[in-house]
## 1
Amino acid sequence: MKEILDEIVDNVFKKALELKVDDTSIIAVYGIENMARFSNNSITVIDTLNEVAVFLYMIKDGKKVVGTTYSVRKEELDKFVERLFSSMQFVEKSSDITSLPKNVFKYLGKNDYDEKIEKLGEGIVDYCESAINAALSEGAKRVSGTISANVEMCKIRTSGGIEEEDRISYISANIRAFSETNSSGHGLSCSTYLSKFYPEEAGKTAGMFSRESKKVGRWDEGEYDLIISPTVAADIFQMVGISASAFRIDTGTSFFKDCLGKKVAVESLTVEDYGTIEGGFGGRKFDDEGVPTQKNTIIEEGVLKTYLHNTTTAKKYGTTSTGNAGIIAPHPWNIVVNAGDMSVDEMIRECKRAVYVTNNWYTRYQNYMRGEYSTIPRDATFLIENGSIKYAINGTRISDSIPRQLSSIKAIGKERKWIKWWEVEIPVYTPTILVEKTRVTKAQF
Amino acid sequence: MSRKNLDLEIPLYVVKKIEEAGAEYAETRLHTREEIGCILKNGQLEPAIVTYSHGLGVRALFNGTLVFSATNIVNRENAKKLIEETLKKGKTASNLTKNKVKFSRERRLKKKWSALEHQKLVDKSFEDLTKVLRELDNIVLEEKDYIPMRFLELEISVEKKLFTNSQGTYIEGYVPRLYIGGFLTGLKESKSVQKVIEFGGSGGWELITKLNVFEEIRKQVQVIKEILEKGQKTVAGVYDIITGPEVTGIMVHESIGHPFEADRILGREGAQAGESYLKPTDLGRQIGSEEANISDDPTIPGSYGFYLYDDEGVPARKRKLVVNGIVNELLHNRATAREFKTKSNGAARSNKFDREPIVRMANTYVEPGDYTFDELIKDVKRGVLVNSFMEWNIDDIRWNQRYVGHESYLIENGEIKYPLINPVIEVTTERLWSSLDARGKEIQFWAATCGKGDPMQGVPVWAGGPYLRFRNLEVKTR
């Protein structure tokens, strides 16, 4: 992988310099994804994706272009760079041009890499089998899911003298189990090391929830306290991270506009963004402009401390880059939420009238500035009355606003879990959260 | 942008080698997409964007196990490696493939097709894109006191696919597309309103005119101003609902299109996009009133979801999903068609070389009826007209759904009164389509990108229909 990346980056870099650009940054990423999907206890497809993507950023005379290509042959890459360059004549000059940073950095971050994940090959099928069997042993009748093993190597070279590389590995199991009555449960395991990957446990959890949610009872639309599992909390906290991007502030798609230094959550909440962190697999040690990634405390004890910046947005906001440059907009890498001191059982005992949500999907916003959204609990969802689970409930929808929820957190769980799956794109390390008085609605039937 | 020919040598080699190794079926797709795009953020031009994606996707069936591999290092050496890996995995996984995958036998074809394109997109430059965006931005700026934040983007793309399979089918397709997206934020005192806007189609630069983009943006700007100035709180209750084509489109896409995807009905998307309220035996089930007539048609010229042959080499055709309220036809690929003992109706799509083709919608809509707009509202005593929406969602069997109005009005005694803020419709699929009692004469489509699969793949679609009238639905507030 390394040789291919070295060659590509060198070729593109030389070509860009030949064309006398003022500034350039080249990132090449070699990714291998090894995936097995199954449904109804049977493999449905085995995927192997093997690809190299090249991201190129060029500035000349105040004009900026960015390009992505999946071409890897030298002559094709040369043509791509030439085409990108020639298209610059039609680009308007930009008033917010910022030169790419010079290499004065130390790259201290380190990602996890496990060669066993790289070499897993057809061994992925065994994990499918153990996850399916674990769910069945808990009483499930049908099991669906995905096991996905990924490795990624990337290299950056910029006209600012930056030349760095990084690599990462991760494996995940996303398991859904169904009982004979079609009640369902969800289980997840995400890890950067094979030794900490627990597909059986994910299968067991999914199977257990499918069994435990068979007894279904009635419920009324209204306000409830909400216990949200790490899978659901991750969906909210990924939006907290995304909304901290200065790009989102500028486009009116953030509920953090004009909130710097202000209280945006309960004091017990701290949310951080990490470029590299043990167990995290969403980032790397440098951003798309070559700036070292770092730990950014977005919310510290309830107060919004920073937006996430690249060099352009940082200049506009009179600050320095936070190492979050994406090809256009700054974005978070890995989100980490602080641990609290309560177990899930203690949270349940604490609640008089609450809903316990173990999974969700389809989160959509009516107003991003206000953070007004709704999302649909999926799989096992339980009604809690007077400190204990009464029965499972179906057809629920959470309708609330994130700012209100951040300010209504009553308790934070003590055990955290890495979450990334179909609904959560940014890896989030989060515990279970108890939120007061959330509106839960149902459909007219 | 360029339009070079794709090389057939490697695909044919891969198909031959996989077939020789004992596969029941093998196919390749050499898939190229080139895009250029511009973004204006509050009038400020972001970096111009060029994306070129090119690679080979390979699918094979070994002893009932389906294997998909993809690479963008398309040479003989890498093709060999790809074949070896594909074979090894296919053989290993076949023990755990309890439900053997089989494909329906479809006709062998040799075809070349393309979307109609009058003003070639390959001739357009960033200058052309920026000019259009500036004009659109100026329209929004006319109401800058109401809309202080805006985001506009324009993207043109050409997509080329070369499909071959072990049956000897060879299909070459070409689709140019144009997409304009935007996000407008309206602010006045303590009120704020936001709207996502999307326009898209297949064809050339003429789409800018055909899609009526300037007029539509102007309309959207005025709607935001009107909501901010005159919008009143929604009073919860039971109303007749009139939906505009945009809302009709999202309703039909979510509650009919998705659950009619046969792979979901068979459980194949169980851990991701979910399953369906339909069971395999539900053909002929009553799901709505007699007025519910719903179709999906990839062959509509100029549509965003346009294609003539799908990504399994099967001819595309119109699918009449619901006829007079009754489940009539599902969306099939080769595998689901075989399971349902029928033929594929050409619904397999893939958005990139590294995504397997799966069952997808194309352009899903409610068929037109015979009412004028005035006729639809004239006997509505207490109603809500929901012309457009922002927030929406639906559960993963596609039964329990919600749509929150953006441009919405109170109707009283057949007259439109004033804009309403955030009316919420939250209803089950059967209740919704059973409440439909009249359809407008004219249909209109809206562009969207529909997500499904793992890894996720978004495909361009249209969704739409006429104005619809639903009787006695609950309206809630946010």
## 2
Amino acid sequence: MSDVTASNAAAGLSQSPALASGFQFPSIHNFPPFYTLQPTASTWKNQAELWSTIIMRYYKHHRLYQLDLDDTAVNDQLFNNQRINRRLKPETIQAIVDVMVKKGDAEWDATSKKRRAIVYWRKPEDWAEMILAWVFELGLNNSILTFYEIAHGEDSEGQEFHNIHPTVLQKTMEVLVRRGIAATFQGATFEEMGVKFFNAGAK
Amino acid sequence: MNRRRMQIGGRAYNERLKATNESYQRVGQSLYDSQLQQLQSQLDTFRANLEVFAREHRKDIQKDPVFRMHFQKMCANIGVDPLASSKGYWGELLGVGDFYYELGIQIIDVCLSTRALNGGLMELSEIKRRVERMRGIQNSNSKTTTTGGSRNNAPQDSNSSSSSSKWAAITLSNNNKDTSMEITEDDVLRAIKTLAPLGSGFQVLQLGDKKMVSSVPRELNRDQSLILALVQNTSGHINANMVSERLGWESGRIETALDTLLEDGLMWIDQQAEPYEYWVPGFFEPEDDEIYATTTVAASSS
């Protein structure tokens, strides 16, 4: 019994479920100056690019969507390197996300005062293609699906968009509506929103 | 009368002398000719032999770095430089000028794709390491006949063999590394030299006991050079105190030198250290090259 607790404790301590589940940080993640916003513009530009690449890959690997400056669980993995005792300051993370937003790789939650952002490691256009393919494969076109069914339904289990973030799903649906492939219907809640795919969307 | 005879005799003597001279000359000329002919035929034989040798060993010249170096030395001793250009007799015969041309392109590629990280200054051995891996990867993609397995063959410096085999273990586990893609630092230097006429601006700098390749036209001032040389013995990073200790400069001079190194993108600063640490980038693991490459591409296209 005490053995079990000990090993549980050890598991809890072993600082990286991320590593355990296979995300390999590039070696620059262990480079101490990587955690200081570089004062030279060209160096900073490259540093921000590298950080955004790492963030996108990390988020994709773990199917994460929201970057939250107050979410220590994720940030301790990504932005806090205990091995070299360096961490990104919140201002630096914000500066990096700003760069990502400019490139369309992220979007600040307008109400969050730059505390939360959605990370688009896949573009809404690409999600749209993926969901569309799935709908037609299952012959669900011409019937109405709820957002819940797409994001959390049994049929979408195993799909990459299973458990997709509501904001990302919303954006994806907007893409489909704009392209005239789908129409959405108001529901009482976000998850009860409905969507109907038209045959015209079939390829 | 007497005198006249003498004159006649003298003339006859002169004529004889002239004739003798001429015949000597003829003999001399024919000797000379035959020597020349001999030389010519020796040269022809030599050239033919060198041709045969080069043809027979063309593959070795291209694939085996040690062999290539010896061949290069031998040719340099007799005043030909067959590897320097793909144009001309030797280049066409051997197709080896292309070797340096291709290597040059790969060096440019390595230097440019890492420039944003290291400010365009890279250790020669690091370039060699990365180019070698690039060649290995290219080879695995467009693989034709050769399958590796002869890995123990060539590398004289253990450094390169260990890093490349490590890389092989990490990413190319299903692909045997091919020694044909191996190169030496000598090859890299030679290829950089062949880039010079293109106005590439590539320079080889001696900093401390290391050769560094600069892909950005620049002049390092003396203080910058001294610090970069110093950093080689301090694990790639340094602070003002260390500079003061080892070089005995006053603080204003140290600050100026370190600041200009930051501005030139040659160093990164770590402000979470006390005192601030200045780092030379460029010692990152090979498995990350792909991330740097994609990042640079993204950066330049945006």
